[in-house]
Structures are given as C-alpha cells and as structure tokens.
Automatic annotation (TrEMBL):
UniProt-annotated binding residues for heme: 110, 150, 199, 396, 400, 407
Catalytic activity, EC: 1.11.1.6
Record-given protein name: Catalase
Organism of this sequence: Sphingobium amiense
Organism classification: Bacteria, Pseudomonadati, Pseudomonadota, Alphaproteobacteria, Sphingomonadales
SMART domains, per the entry: Catalase (SM01060)
GO molecular function: catalase activity; heme binding; metal ion binding
Biased composition annotated in UniProt, kind: Basic and acidic residues: 44-53
Gene Ontology biological-process annotations: hydrogen peroxide catabolic process; response to oxidative stress
Length: 735
C-alpha cells in the first residue's frame, strides 16, 4: 500500500494563524494567493473534528486550552499546592508536562548555517529540458512544482545578526512528482576547499575560537586567516567573500549557485554536465561594510524582516533558474577541472540558459516547524539528475544525512511535514523514534509473495532512479589531481572583472579583516598570496596594514597564474537593479512638513513598486502643513538611515530647528551621506545638514525637493544603487 505523506504536525498551529481565520496586524497585509499547505496548517480546532463534534471550546469561542493529552485545563496560572502557600505537588501533571516540554524545546542548531530564514513558493518551468534530462520537473513548460527555500549565514549562531560578512546559503527544496530534489547552494559559485575532508578544519577555523568563544559570526580573527593563508585553494573564494557579495542588501538581491558540476541524465541514459544558477529578478544589490556594521545594531533581523515584509506585502521575490550545459568534450578542453568546486565556468564562455523561475509567495506559519526543521540533503536527487565525482560533493552526500539525524533526532525526519515528499511514498523502512506515517498490514519485507494488493511496494525498473553508469578505475590514492592546482588565475579573473569601486571594497575588506588578526606573520602570509592574484591589490592591502615591506610571493603547487579575460557577470555594480522597485525610501518628516511633497513621493514610489517608512521625532507621527496626520513607522533613533536604500528629509523650518542639534538626526544624515546614498531634502532641512557638518559637501546625489513635482524625478534618480564618486571623498583610505 502506498504510504500517504504525513498529514499532521506535532506543533499545534495557534488558532489566530490557522487557515481561514482573519489574521491581525501587518504580518498579513496582503494574503498570498496560494492556499496554505493543508499538511502544515490544520488548526487545533479542526483536529478536534477528527473524533466527531468538539466540545472543547472556551467561553469566548476560542479553543479550550488542553494538556498534550487533550485534557481541558481549568487553571494555567497557578501550580497545584498543598494549601495556598504550601509546597507544589508532584501530582500536578499539567505543570510537570508543561515544564518538561519547555525544557526540551531546543534542538541542536545547525553546525553551520545555523541562522536562516525560509519561505514557500514554487518553481515554474519556462523552457523544457526533456531532451536532456528525464527529471519530471523539467518536462512540461508551465507546470509548477512546490518549493521551500532557506537562506542563511554560515558562521554565526542562530541568534547572530544578519549582516555578517559571510557566504549566504541558498538552499532550495523542490517537491517534485518523483521525489524531493534539494539544490543546496550558496550565493557564491565557488567554495573555500576542494575536498570535503577539509570541511571540519575550515569550519573550526571560521567559528569562534574554542578557548574564548569569540568572535561571533565573523571571520576577522587569527584562526580563520591562519587556515586560509595555509590553504591557497581558498583564494578564489576569498576574493568573493571579501567582495560586496558577502554583505547583500537582501536575500532577494543575491544570486544562488549549485556550485558543483552535476549531471542531467536523459531517458536514454545520456549524461550532460550542468551548473545551476539562480538569477534574481530584483538585480544584484549589496550594502557597504560600514553600513553593515551599523545595520547589525539597528536591526539584527534586517534580512529576515525584509523577506517577511516583501512577501506579505505581495512583492514576491523571483529568480530565474539558469543552467550551463556542457559535455565531456567541453570539459576536456576547458582550462580548469569541472570537478573542482573552487572554479567557475565564465558565462561569457558558456552562456546561462534560463529554463524556469522560482517565486517565493508565502511565509511560514511556524518558524520552528518549517524553517528550523527543514532538512536539506545534497544526496536528495531525483531520476534524471545525478552527481559527478567532485570530491566536495561526494563528501557532502554523506554529511547532510548524518547531520539531520543528529539535529532532528530520528531517521524519521522525513515524516515531518516540511520534509515529507508531496508525492506518494512507499517503502519497508519502519519504526524508530517519532514514527508518524506507519504502514498497515502484515508484510514489511521484499521480495514477498503476497501479491500486488497485500505485498506492498515493488521496484520500478523503468521510472526508478538509476545512477549514471560512469566508468571508473585507477589506484586508491589520497591525492589532489594536477588539474586542481591553479589557485590564482580565477581569483585574478574575479578581481579584474570588478568595477574600480568594487575593487576598492575588496581591498578595504581585506585590510579590515587582517587588521583584526593579531599575528603579523599571518597578515603577511595572506598578502603573499594576494601578490599572486594582483600586484596592485597586494600593494594596497600591504599599505593599508602598514606592512614594512611586501613579502615574497606565496609558493604554491602552481604559483603562476594566467591572465583570463574579465567577465561582466561577476560584478554587482554591472548587474544592478533597473529601478527603485522593491526597495525602501526612508522619509524623515516633521510637524508642518510639505503635505503635497510627501504625497508626491508616496505616489511616485507606489508607481515603481517601491515602499517607504516614515521616520519622525515621535512614534505617534506628525501633522503636515495641510493638517494631515501621518503615523510614523520609526522614531528617529530607532530608524537609522542604514535601514533604507535612499532617504528624503522632508521637514519644515520649525522641524529643522527642533532636529538640527539632535544626535540621532545628525547620525541619520551623516550616515546616509557617508554611505553614498541618494538624499532628497527640502530647503528648510539645511540647518540639519549644516550642524552635521556636511552642508558644504552636498553633491549631485543630494537633491533638492522644492515641491511635489520634484518627487517623480527624485524616485527615478534613486534607481542607481549609490553615488559612488562620493566614496572617494569620504574615505581616508581612498585619498
Ligand atoms: Fe554545507 C548546511 C551549502 C559544503 C556540510 N550547507 C548547509 C546549508 C547550505 C550549505 C546552504 C544550509 C542548509 C539549510 O538551510 O538547512 N555546503 C554548502 C555549499 C557547499 C557546502 C554550497 C560547497 C559547495 N557542507 C559542505 C561540505 C560539508 C558540508 C563540504 C561537509 C563535508 N552543510 C554541511 C552540514 C550542514 C550544512 C554540516 C549543516 C546543517 C545541515 O547540513 O543541514 O551537513
């Protein structure tokens, strides 16, 4: 008998977010068009219906509070005592059960990627790959496959901040009709190491140092750079990790990559190599490092809040799925080994073919049940998709299953609704902790002779998964192939593909990180590798660190590099957003501010699909010059300008007088200026800028908002990411 996927969750969905119930507050401003997953959101009250009519309803119509056994609770405020002041009684089963459950609420956080945020959506095929892969998901154009995506930082603990300089996880679970396919990728297409046996060392070195348990969520410390400087294969990844890719503006504005070379396998058994790319429709966007540091204080949840607000606001983030397809002949003539996860295949050499789109349109109902318990495994592939011999991928295929058992506590983690396939599941695995979907009947083995009705599931030699029959021979060796030896050429290619401002950010990041390293010999050893990448970069970093002299170039397996042509696809600035859509303007208002101008800004933002927050001296809001009252989203000291893509200071003369000496207001404008943001300001706002010491420095990106008619042009102008020429004036290191 085919098993049905789990239909139930151990976590009771609170009645106020159960399907069909009105949801209060901003969290559901615009309901998702996709109905909530029935598996996950069966409400408590509906569950009671299973056994017939419920009578466990409290006086006001809410569900009656019960114990885990379903016994209605009369008093949840006081434990059972002997007399009013007497000892608490062991007999109090409700109290004991409640505390027992609370004591066991935590599960181990992920050893890496502990801090993450997930959302539901779908994948839609736009271009058939039926001739190349028999994977069901790639057959029918227009068909949608349910998806769950979890974004994450790598190094920090679950409670760390979002804007760490770090790689971001981009893990996608696709619930296909022939099983779950997990594409467990990152927002960077290469990795630090070539062989999975080095992963524990890499992670130990990156995490807080074991004696002191700091620094949290950052690589700016001796152990990390010590390991890196002794691991030249990491140099390409280091270029990416020190670039603005590692401080994205939003999960919505980053690319995703499957990293490894995988295989697509056709119905005839033919294999085609593939690299997977997720390309954000929102364009690539990042923040500045000084801004990131301040965002972490102003809103440590910046990225998760952004995703939550965008999806609930109906602005569903979207990515294109692109594939780079190639055969063995291409692999043989390519300069690098396609099994080496520290290498890319530049898009200019092998264009990315777009075959589908991923849309995230529903936030989770319960963070723990879904985002925390989701278990991604690289070995979750489906018929038509297969692995290559990339040694990093091969190692991952062991690690993920193993870690889920540790984290979730039972081999039955596939019974948890977020992990359960949405297609029929039928096998003879049984029992274990928390078994939720248990087969009926007598037969739990095969082969058996109980026939098609009683005998349970059978193999399917036609549709079933078959590994690609790759030939393999050779001696057993612990060795790196020669073809993995060039660690610098692609690192250089990445560097030379950046705009000058992006190159500056890479040098700044290296100087920042290495300035936190206490041992001078480690700093110098990193610079010795940079010389092999780019002399100019090495010189700038050495200068920024105050090194007395340039060290000798690092000796590595293949210390020389070849000069590869730049690739525009590698730059964020060259792939930025076309408009202000999906971004946020911070509008600082005061009492008496120009109502028509404010209205004009709101209209222009709405027209391009952007949002705004009102920041005001008091959270109660302001009264504009026409008497309109506007509520504030943020008080000035809670709504720092780092939280916005651009800002507008729309204040009256009285408002400016009130705010001109206010430290939080000065920080607001100074940071917006220092972070090269576009700034709109009324003439009356000038005293604020004067007191902040920047009135004389205002430049072309500081735009006067004289009247309502200026609003639309302003919103057009701020489509550009930042006004980069300013950075060269406000940064000591650039002078
Ligand atoms: Fe990994 C989690 C991505 C190498 C072992 N990894 C994890 C997650 C992502 C990645 C996105 C979080 C999944 C989620 O949201 O739950 N990992 C990568 C990429 C890699 C990579 C793109 C290189 C190309 N990972 C890698 C190696 C190993 C691991 C080489 C071990 C040999 N990764 C793990 C893990 C984690 C994990 C320990 C921790 C939590 C989990 O798996 O579920 O098994």
């Amino acid at each position: 008998m085919p098993r049905k996927p789990a239909t139930d969750t151990a976590v009771i969905v609170p009645a106020d977010i159960a399907p069909g119930k009105p949801v209060s507050g901003e969290s559901r401003q615009k309901a998702s068009p996709v109905p909530p997953d029935a598996q996950l959101s069966e409400s408590y009250a509906e569950k009671q219906g299973d056994g017939g009519e419920t009578h466990q309803v409290a006086a006001d119509g809410a569900p009656a509070l019960t114990t885990s056994q379903g016994v209605p609770v009369a008093d949840d405020q006081n434990s059972l005592k002997q007399g009013a002041r007497g000892p608490t009684l062991l007999e109090d089963f409700h109290f004991r059960e409640k505390i027992f459950h609370f004591d066991h609420e935590r599960i181990p956080e992920r050893v890496v990627h502990a801090r993450g945020y997930g959302a539901h959506g779908f994948f839609e095929l736009t271009d058939s790959l039926a001739d190349i892969s028999r994977a069901d998901i790639f057959q029918r154009v227009g068909e949608r496959t349910p998806a769950f995506v979890r974004f994450s930082t790598v190094a920090g603990s679950k409670g760390s901040f979002d804007l760490a300089r770090d790689v971001r996880g981009f893990a996608v679970k696709l619930y296909t009709k022939e099983g779950n396919w997990d594409l467990v990728g990152n927002n960077i297409p290469v990795f630090f190491i070539q062989d999975a046996i080095k992963f524990p060392d890499l992670v130990h070195a990156a995490k807080p140092e074991p004696d002191r348990a700091f620094p949290q969520a950052q690589t700016a410390h001796d152990n990390f750079w010590d390991f890196i400087s002794l691991t030249p294969e990491s140099m390409h990844m280091i270029m990416w990790a020190m670039s603005d890719r590692a401080i994205p503006r939003s999960f919505r504005t980053m690319e995703g990559f499957g990293v490894h070379t995988f295989r697509l396998v056709s119905a005839e058994g033919k294999s085609t190599f593939v690299k997977f790319h997720w390309k954000p429709k929102q364009g690539l966007q990042s923040v500045l490092w000084n801004e990131a540091v301040k965002i972490n204080g102003a809103d440590p949840d910046f990225h998760r809040r952004d995703l939550w607000e965008a999806i609930n606001g109906g602005d569903f983030p979207e990515w294109e799925l692109g594939v780079q397809l190639f055969d063995q002949a291409f692999a043989d003539q390519f300069d690098f080994d396609v099994l080496d996860a520290t290498k890319i295949i530049p898009e200019e050499i092998l264009p990315v073919r777009v075959v589908g789109r991923l849309v995230l349109d529903r936030v989770v109902d319960n963070f723990f049940a879904e985002t925390e318990q989701v278990a991604f495994c690289t070995q979750n592939v489906v018929p038509g998709i297969d692995f290559t011999n990339d040694p990093l991928l091969q190692g991952r295929n062991f690690s993920y299953l193993d870690t889920q058992l540790k984290r979730l506590g039972s081999p039955n983690f596939t019974h948890i609704p977020i992990n359960a396939p949405k297609c029929p599941v039928a096998h003879f695995q049984q029992d274990g902790h928390m078994a939720m979907t248990n087969p009926r009947g007598r037969v739990n083995y095969e082969p058996n002779s109980w026939g098609a009705t009683l005998g349970g599931p059978r193999e399917d030699p036609v549709r079933g998964f078959r590994s690609f029959a790759e030939e393999a021979d050779g001696a057993k060796l612990r060795i790196r192939p020669e073809s993995f030896a060039d660690h610098y050429s692609q690192a250089r290619q990445f560097y030379v593909s950046q705009e000058p401002i992006e190159q500056k950010h890479i040098a700044d990041a290296l100087v920042f990180e290495l300035s936190k390293v206490e041992r001078p010999d480690i700093r110098a050893r990193v610079v010795s590798h940079l010389i092999n990448i780019d002399d100019g970069l090495a010189g700038t970093v050495a200068d920024g660190l105050g090194l007395p002299e340039l060290p000798a170039p690092a000796q590595a397996a293949q210390p020389t590099r070849s000069d590869l042509p730049p690739s525009d696809a590698l730059s964020i600035v060259k792939n930025g957003p076309p408009s202000f859509k999906g971004r946020k303007l911070g509008i600082l208002l005061s009492d008496g501010a120009d109502a028509a101008l404010f209205g004009g800004l709101v209209k222009a933002l709405d027209k391009v699909g952007a949002v705004y927050d009102v920041i005001a001296p008091k959270i109660g809001g302001v009264t504009l010059d026409d008497g309109t009252k506007v509520a504030a989203k943020q008080k000035i000291d809670g709504g720092a300008s780092v939280l916005f893509d651009a800002v507008a200071i729309v204040v009256s003369a009285d408002g400016a007088a009130l705010l001109a000496d206010d430290a939080a207001t000065q920080d607001f404008v100074r940071d917006a200026f220092g972070h090269c943001k576009y700034i709109g300001l009324t003439l009356d706002a000038q005293p604020i800028f004067a007191n902040a010491g920047i009135l004389e420095k205002l430049d072309d990106a500081c735009i006067e908002l004289g009247a309502a008619k200026d609003a639309a042009a302003f919103v057009d102008t701020i489509a550009a990411l930042r006004f980069w020429p300013r950075e060269l004036k406000v940064d000591m290191d650039a002078k």
